[in-house]
Amino acid sequence: SSFYTVVPGCLSVVIKTCFFFFFFFSFAGHGNHKENSPFLNSSEAVKGGDYYDRNLALFEEELDIRPKVSSLLGKLVNYTNLTQGVKEHEEAESTDGSKKKVSKSPSMGTLMGVYLPCMQNIFGVILFLRLTWMVGMAGVLQSFLIVLLCCCCTMLTTISMSAIATNGVVPAGGSYFMISRSLGPEFGGAVGLCFYLGTTFAGAMYILGAIEILLTYIVPQAAIFHPSGAHDASSAMLNNMRVYGTVFLILMAVVVFVGVKYVNKFASLFLACVVISILSIYAGAIKSIFDPPEFPICMLGNRTLSRDQFDVCAKTIVKDNITVASKLWELFCHSTNLTTENCDEYFLMNNVSEIAGIPGAASGILKDNLWSNYMEKGEILEKAHHPSVDVAGLKNNLHLYVLSDIATSFMVLVGIFFPSVTGIMAGSNRSGDLKDAQKSIPVGTILAIVTTSLVYFSCVLLFGACIEGVVLRDKECVSHHPWCICLMFLFLQVFGHGKANGEPTWALLLTALIAELGILIASLDMVAPILSMFFLMCYLFVNLACAVQTLLRTPNWRPRFKYYHWALSFLGMSICLALMFISSWYYALVAMLIAGMIYKYIEYQGAEKEWGDGIRGLSLSAARYALLRLEEGPPHTKNWRPQLLVLLKLDEDLHVKYPRLLTFASQLKAGKGLTIIGSVIQGNFLETYGEAQAAEQTIKNMMDIEKVKGFCQVVVANKVREGIAHLIQSCGLGGMKHNTVVLGWPYGWRQSEDPRSWKTFIGTVRCTTAAHLALLVPKNVSFYPSNHERYNEGNIDVWWIVHDGGMLMLLPFLLKQHKVWRKCKMRIFTVAQMDDNSIQMKKDLATFLYQLRIEAEVEVVEMHNSDISAYTYERTLMMEQRSQMLRQMRLTKTEREREAQLVKDRHSIARLESLYSDEEDEGDPVPENIQMTWTKEKCDAEKRNRGSAVGSFRDLISIKPNQSNVRRMHTAVKLNEVIVNRSHDARLVLLNMPGPPKNTDGDENYMEFLEVLTEGLERVLLVRGGGREVITIYS
């Protein structure tokens, strides 16, 4: 019958696959891909001599970095997106003076470039080998539903693909290029490889379909393996498929490697053969109305018999006017005479009859084929409502009936049929060869899907209206035209469009090996669901890419194709996901696992290009939404966590001076929350911008080493104190701002005559207090543990002297979350005065910690009132004498340097003034001309100044300490004694940091108090709260 013509579209998919694989590695390989920039580099610009156009003199200083419009347009016009052009572009862009290669401009239109290739890809082996079987199993109605689901999936995907493909130039690379530019290289690589694997398995499926036709209908005698018993036919057929499939795969690999460009010229001819074969279906259906073909089916009762082993459908035959046993009788009764002793009971009780296998469209068989007839594996094909006596037959005779080789259901048939609607990417894969890809891809692909969908729907209807149900459900009960079968070998050799140069040898080898895996499966019905998963995964992400871009409304999302909507993309994505799990849930999970592994691998390796993908845009939109939500009000105490601003100091070589500050920050944060690393470069922004960039990169490298996840901000300011104030005020964005400042201790401030370091430190403390921020000052930070150390024992001691909102309780808990501090125990000390009930205080503190869900050992330290010791008095006296002495030394140094100013130029004068004046204070402007004339008044004043300086040194001996300073020193000394006594062996000591004095004259004394307070402790963390509660007993 003509409408049973089988023309497999065969292994040509392998050819397309090889080149897709080549394209993928060209784009995703390490450093192979180079995106063309429309901007001219400076060498091209100077060579052209266009930058000195008199009409553009106003812009001549910018033309070395910004091209003229004419140059830009000229470069864009010369842009080509052919795949093999990647290497040629690099050669063409080189300025070595070599002769540029002239690439052939794309010339394909919609018909030859998109419509026909898509038709050629979509029509395949499933249409000719499995569609009739699907109609027989699922019935016409459910077959319509299967075709509708699959075609809707591809149509919605095509709409999304058309929007993406028309949003700018799409070079070759197909789905990989589109998805990687929309969702990022990780998604593009994962989905691109899934598409590659699906296409490779499609090649294996087409080969298996061709071998099935070859061994079943054309030359069955060519089988190498033969069944040894009645039940070994299936395994023998599978082994034959494996052997012949491997041979054909090798043949196809050779064809692709050697002569694909020649065979490809016959692609249109082969497509014409496919179209003729499909047209023959319609011709045969029309012919069956008037003259149904003779195609008898032999029935035993209501069971369908396999005619491979007999030719006469009767129990007896008349031979020389004698009734004798037929071959059928011999098979069921195991006897050549008409005895019934060993006959099958079902054979004896039921009659043998013949029915028309193809009754024709006018027979009314359609109503019998409307409903499904799903079967289990090994079940006999039966005709409903056919006269039959229901008795058990012998199991040894099952091979004489037509049996179902696999268990069928709606889900199984979806997975088997879906490959027959794939191939919609053929147009986008050829985008480099299209004259107008943005017009041809949508029109050609949509027309191809509409055409193929109409063919599928009409074929389902015609098969159900013309063919008997038992014939439809029998995969092998199909007749073929020999002239169409002969075309099979030609179709095995061509499909897809390849390039003559740059044959991907290694990619071809890998593709052949992967296809061989499909060949070894040896079952068309098993391979089809596998490639369905990979194609559905690809289509799912195409829809996701379009939906994300549409919802984000990115400025660059301006597709020429206007008939799309995010709801359609989400619907297509949902259908793809549903079809994946409907077809085979375990195959779907495996495909997702493979895609996820590829995604994580590419993410781990790191993408070398930033393409402005939609996932980054999605992250920006999500961040914006979250920031706006955070602006609705301050965070609740339960949600409070330290958002750190770490102030780093850099040395002269722009190296981080105390990297352990970053280590401490990473241990405190454990990778959670906000961390901003800030630093200040002193100078003018216009002059030190490059230095600031280098400093920022240095800090980022150090953050990577210390595994600190956060942001870096380097500011340039005339004064360090102003820069720190700017960081404290402006770091962060909206509700995502820092609430805690980590500040390093100014080491060596006692030995230095320069007061800048400790003045900057105290100024920062005052800034954080004014901004209501918490402050952490790690002292002796160089002794803090690295991230590689582990404390297997030890204590973290908290000295809770004044309440600061709970910071002292929360910080040890956060530190213990990190592996370095995890095994340390927490001890909390509080100080009781003479009038306090220390026993009750200990009970209350233990109850408070229990309610806070913090495990810690509680101790109350009693401090008795005692007289001020001579040691305290002496320390205070030494502190004040030192302050007075340094002040006098700075004044004396000023007088000495004043003489040197007379022989220096104005630049040296400014520098010398800064030596004795605080750099944080604005100095007096230096006059342009210095008068170098000595007068009598100047000489007398100089002598008086020298005399007063000498007298000041003598006054240091008779100085008396301030009583307020004595009291403060007494507190520092007594607390230090208690802390050192109890916590000298602690891994870390946390204590309240007293605030700086309101009067700035006592700043230097404040530093001395802090030194005395922390003396003798190896690792100290001074903590100052931000004025709000940070911990709560409530859930």
TrEMBL record:
Classification via Gene3D superfamilies: Amino acid/polyamine transporter I (1.20.1740.10)
Subcellular location: Cell membrane
Annotated ranges, domain Amino acid permease/ SLC12A: 114-289, 390-468, 499-645
Keywords linked to the UniProt accession: Cell membrane, Chloride, Glycoprotein, Ion transport, Membrane, Phosphoprotein, Potassium, Potassium transport, Symport, Transmembrane, Transmembrane helix, Transport
Gene Ontology biological-process entries: cell volume homeostasis; chemical synaptic transmission; chloride ion homeostasis; potassium ion homeostasis; potassium ion import across plasma membrane
InterPro entries found in the cross-reference section: AA-permease/SLC12A_dom, KCL_cotranspt, SLC12_C, SLC12A_fam
Pfam families: AA_permease, SLC12
Family named by the database record: Belongs to the SLC12A transporter family. K/Cl co-transporter subfamily.
Record protein name field: Solute carrier family 12 member 4
Origin species: Athene cunicularia
Lineage of the organism: Eukaryota, Metazoa, Chordata, Craniata, Vertebrata
Underlying gene: SLC12A4
